[in-house]
Design goal:
Blueprint lengths: L7 H7 L1 H12 L15 H6 L2 E6 L1 H18 L3 E5 H4 L10 E7 L5 H12 L3 E6 L5 H4 L3 E4 L12 H21 L4 H12 L1 H9 L2 H11 L4 E6 L2 H17 L2 E6 L16 E6 L5 H13 L3 E7 L11 E5 L8 H18 L18
Parallel strand pairs: 1-2, 1-3, 3-4, 4-5, 6-7, 6-8, 8-9, 9-10
Helix pairs in contact: 2-8, 2-10, 4-8, 4-12, 8-9, 10-14, 11-14, 12-14
């Protein structure tokens, strides 16, 4: 039921603090340890692996991109991420030393399922991150990590994405601990940051009114870029997908450092650039990228962490997310982008919950 919300998408955006809380509750013990009771993967199994391969489609793939950074950092192993429709046709190098992770909200996406079967044929161990209990992907995996987002009705994925992100963090903590690649202190710090996310999400959701006003002003622009570096680039891809799928605006995401290798040629005074600048180490680099697009008169909407006000003089608008560890910022920074996509589509009179040409579950190849 949509309740007080006009669309399922808006309801599901606002469901996120609760969904995240649920995923945390199900997987964290009182002592702040990630406890995965159903996990059959042992320390000995894990010691055999020499690589992790993450495969998914669309939004779930974007979650996988964040997952790569997290796994590299926590588990210290080579990590590949690919879209399922490419992975399954390129004769990927996968063997019994591979931990294959499939991510899927529905658990029924044809390409993801076939990629999983291919990885299994090649001997990989299969772990999946799935929302729908008992779905085909879940049934065919060696282990399943459920995201506990609850049913997602809107075609555009929101709470499934953030709970997929959270599942990847929890899994990376768990595996990092099994492998002894994460320090006790850092583990505790990450757990404490994750526990604070529901409250911080509530705060980010209060940006709704300001974002709606902005969407009313800018909804008829026909070109929107999303830029960022590091994990912000992965969030940029997701923000761009949200906007294009429900508002039909031609939108494009790119790692900010790549702009000057071609794409910056497209900047025009009517172009909107949504710039994510939440990564402390990359902040100055992002500010220079913002200056580059500003010099071409693009309209810049920035997303930064509270306190980083230096960005305001280079931006037309700035939205702040609460202070947090860089590693967990995707859980917060994607929210303004979801809300922006929603209100732009609403202004344009689009059918938000059922965008044209799209299906909730893509069971064709
Ligand atoms: C975008 C969206 C799609 C799905 C993709 C994979 O908002 O929902 O990109 O993420 O079709 O679907 P699942 O996760 O069900 O495998």
């Amino acid at each position: 039921e949509k309740g007080k919300y006009e669309h399922f998408m808006l309801k599901e955006i606002f469901d996120q603090p609760k969904a995240i809380e649920e995923t945390l509750d199900r997987n964290l013990s009182d002592g702040g340890r990630v406890s995965l009771y159903d996990m059959t993967l042992t320390k000995e199994d894990f010691a055999k692996f020499n690589k992790i391969c993450i495969v998914a489609c669309g939004t779930a793939y974007h979650a996988g991109l964040v997952g790569r950074n997290i796994f590299e950092k926590f588990v210290k192993m080579p990590v590949e991420v690919d879209v399922a429709s490419e992975f399954r046709y390129r004769d990927p190098f996968v063997d019994e030393k591979t931990l294959f992770i499939a991510i899927s909200q529905s658990g029924e996406t044809a390409d993801t399922l076939e990629a999983l079967r291919e990885a299994k044929r090649k001997g990989a161990r299969v772990l999946s991150i799935v929302n729908v209990v008992g779905s085909t992907v879940a049934r065919e995996s060696d282990d399943v990590f459920y995201t506990w987002a609850g049913p997602e009705i809107s075609v555009a994925s929101t709470k499934a994405y953030t709970t997929q992100l959270l599942s990847l963090y929890l899994l990376a903590l768990y595996l990092g601990d099994l492998r002894g690649t994460i320090s006790e202190e850092y583990y505790r710090e990450v757990v404490s940051e994750l526990s604070e996310i529901p409250e911080k999400l509530e705060k980010v959701l209060t940006l709704r009114g300001d974002i709606e006003k902005l969407a009313k002003k800018l909804y008829d622009r026909d070109q929107v870029f999303f830029i960022g570096r590091g994990m912000d680039a992965s969030v940029a891809y997701e923000g761009s997908l949200k906007l294009k799928e429900i508002s039909y605006i031609n939108s494009f995401a790119i790692a900010a450092g790549e702009l000057k290798h071609g794409t910056i040629a497209l900047m025009e005074p009517t172009t909107i650039v949504v710039a994510l600048a939440t990564q402390s180490k990359l902040f100055d680099k992002m500010v220079s990228n913002i200056q580059e697009v500003k010099a071409r008169n693009a309209h810049v909407i920035s997303i930064a962490k509270e306190g980083n006000t230096a960005i305001e003089e280079h931006s037309n608008e700035t939205f702040y997310i609460p202070e947090c560890m860089d590693e967990v910022s995707p859980l917060l920074s994607v929210i303004p982008l979801q809300i922006y996509a929603y209100y732009v589509a609403k202004e344009k009179g689009c059918e938000i919950d059922r965008p044209r040409n799209l299906a909730k579950s893509v069971t064709v190849e």
